[in-house]
Amino acid sequence: MQAKKQRNVYSLIAGLINVFTAFVHLIGGQITLVDPLMQTSLPLDVRAQWLGAWHIVTVILFITSFSLLRDGISPRTTFQNKAFEYAILYGAFGIVFIGVSIYMKNSAPQWILLIPIGLFSFLSFRTYHLNQIKDDSNS
Length: 139
Fold this sequence. Notes:
Elements: H1 9-38, H2 44-73, H3 80-104, H4 111-138
Helix pairs in contact: 1-2, 1-4, 3-4
């Protein structure tokens, strides 16, 4: 009889924070940033490109949310490298917003959600890595 796989709590937490972030981005960002920007006198092509870039981020947030949640619910060792990549990606995203906050001398609080996603993704990677070492030593 095969043992039931335990959930990957770190991926699950990262995924839940990430899906929350995706909805805040999609709804809150649309209301507070996108709609006002679309009403400016910026050239139409600039507004269209900005809107496209905005929703590329929306897509990234939802796809990575799905991936993290799927791994949290049904862990698979093939996710190990992806967890590490998400840790780097979301850590870098957070650092960008910290840098922007410092440069603009104004708070860009997105890092508050992005850094924890990166941290929990790293913890997920670390869990896989430590389990692999443990399994290798038991072989």
